[in-house]
From TrEMBL:
Keywords: Cell membrane, Membrane, Transmembrane, Transmembrane helix
GO cellular component: plasma membrane
PANTHER family: L-FUCOSE-PROTON SYMPORTER, PROTEIN TSGA
Molecular function in Gene Ontology: transmembrane transporter activity
Keyword Membrane: yes
Localization per record: Cell inner membrane
Biological classification of the source: Eukaryota, Fungi, Dikarya, Ascomycota, Pezizomycotina
Basic and acidic residues composition-biased segments: 458-471
Spans through the membrane: 30-50, 70-91, 98-116, 122-144, 165-184, 196-216, 253-273, 285-303, 315-333, 339-362, 374-394, 400-423
Disordered: annotated span: 444-471
Stated name of the protein: Major facilitator superfamily domain-containing protein
Length: 471
């Protein structure tokens, strides 16, 4: 019985073999996409809780804003270690399912380790636990983002990843609301005890999810599948060596700058609302305002996805990122209700940027897709670099002027939005995938022909040898 349960559940995929996963239809992709979308909620919840804990630790441990950003540095600093290191290696040598299980186990381990660190009020220990959690979530993102992008018709890649990422936004809304009730409305001792139970629940849930991923029928999309997609769309980028994929590295740079700006704003939103906003130092109210801002972020994901159904995703991306720059500028000098309103609008327009950079950056990579996706996700390390800088500026000049730092990084990320809309070599690749009918016409017979070819060659060889013997 046990052997029957585990039969056919190997975690290693053959990347040199093309399967029909490259042409998976909308209907066939629904179940695996729904399962992977749960992961987006998980790290949205973890990310939202982290921003709330950032503010709480400043009060409980009496640390500066710059030092409290160590949580973000530990969390996002782990991403490139996963996305270019261990998770990338597992993805290329084993496949998506193996990375999903690996990431969930790391997430559970970090959650369990965080409990004694919270009990002993060890900020350094908690940062170490967050680093392990970051490795787990970085592993999940390394697999989940490209999986969502390639699992289904290429034409709808941006739609799929933005819909899935919308559930990330749901997690970021729930976490601050929960934090406002379990952290700021209790004594420090009770609040820390509540956080312990949250992380214990997370550990149990993700371990159950890891078991589910082991048994779930998830299609393995190989490098050969992605090479086929690149050939079918005539993107023309797949045939170049990896180091010449300059559009990929531009996307990674944009991801670094954009993610750094987004995380910096979220990390110090509560501080901004408390000192420069309308809350008069009420941290609980500020946390609730932050939850509202995350709700605006989530709403933006759904609105942006709706527009992408009718307008090319690269255009929607350009408009949304431009609006981030336009509206964060007034927040640097105008506090109170006006400043908070500006940040609400910024979070609304941030919504589609991260997933769209992922989807656009992976266009045309073909056999380099798995390796390239790790570099784009590795750009998330911007979330470890920009918040400490923002915190240092805020400590010296106030939270309003501190927002100048993410403004500068938004402008740097804007270079990629301009490139995918106005540079011909970028536009050609983006539009060739948007216009293809791969995955809409059903699977071709090429897969069976590839499997049959070695047999036919062997038969021809036997016939030839037989003729030579007779002669």
């Amino acid at each position: 019985m046990a052997l029957t349960i585990f039969k056919g559940r190997g975690l290693k995929a053959d990347d040199s073999r093309r399967t029909q996963a490259a042409e998976i239809t909308l209907r066939e992709s629904i179940f695996p996409l729904a399962l992977v979308t749960i992961l987006f909620f998980l790290w949205g919840f973890s990310y939202g809780l982290l921003d709330t804990l950032n503010s709480h630790f400043q009060d409980v441990l009496g640390i500066t804003q710059a030092r409290s950003a160590g949580l973000q540095a530990a969390y996002f600093g782990a991403y490139p270690l996963a996305s270019i290191g261990h998770a990338a290696w597992i993805l290329r040598h084993y496949g998506y399912r193996a990375v999903f299980i690996w990431g969930l186990c790391l997430y559970a381990l970090g959650a369990i380790i965080s409990i004694p660190c919270i009990i002993n009020r060890s900020f350094g220990g908690f940062c170490a636990a967050i680093f392990i959690i970051g490795n787990g979530l970085g592993s999940l993102e390394t697999a989940a983002n490209p999986f969502i992008t390639v699992c289904g018709p290429p034409r709808y890649a941006e739609l799929r990843i933005n819909i899935s990422q919308a559930f990330n936004g749901v997690g970021t809304v729930i976490a601050p609301v929960l934090g406002s009730y379990v952290l700021f409305n209790f004594s420090d001792e009770t609040a820390l005890a509540n956080v312990q139970w949250i992380y214990l629940a997370i550990a149990v849930f993700v371990l159950i999810l890891a078991v589910l991923f082991y048994f779930a029928p998830i299609p393995e999309i190989t490098d050969a599948d992605m090479q086929y997609q690149a050939e079918e769309t005539a993107a023309g980028s797949d045939d170049k060596p990896f180091l010449q994929q300059y559009k990929l590295f531009h996307a990674s740079f944009a991801q670094f700058c954009y993610t750094g700006a987004q995380v910096a704003i979220a990390s110090f939103f509560i501080n901004y609302a408390s000192t420069f906003g309308p809350t008069n130092g009420n941290r609980s109210f500020a946390a609730q305002l932050f939850a509202g801002a995350q709700a605006a972020f989530t709403l933006g994901r759904f609105v942006g996805t709706f527009f992408m159904a009718y307008i090319k995703p690269r255009i929607v991306f350009l408009v949304f990122l431009t609006m981030c720059i336009v509206f964060i500028a007034p927040a640097t000098t105008h506090g109170g209700v006006t400043g908070i309103s500006m940040l609400y609008i910024v979070l609304f327009f941030e919504s589609v940027c991260f997933p769209t950079i992922v989807a656009l950056g992976m266009r045309g990579l073909g056999r380099h897709t798995k390796r390239g996706s790790g570099y784009i996700i590795g750009g998330v390390i911007g979330g470890a670099c920009v918040p400490p800088l923002t915190g240092a500026v805020s400590d010296m000049h106030g939270n309003g002027i501190g927002m100048v730092v993410p403004l500068c990084f938004f402008v740097a990320a804007w270079s990629y939005a301009l490139a995918v809309n106005f540079v011909p070599s970028y536009v050609k690749v983006m539009d060739s995938f948007h216009e293809t009918d791969v995955g809409l016409r059903g699977p071709s017979d090429d897969v069976e022909q590839v499997k049959a070819a070695p047999v036919e060659q062997e038969e021809n060889k036997v016939v030839t040898e037989s003729k030579e013997t007779k002669e």
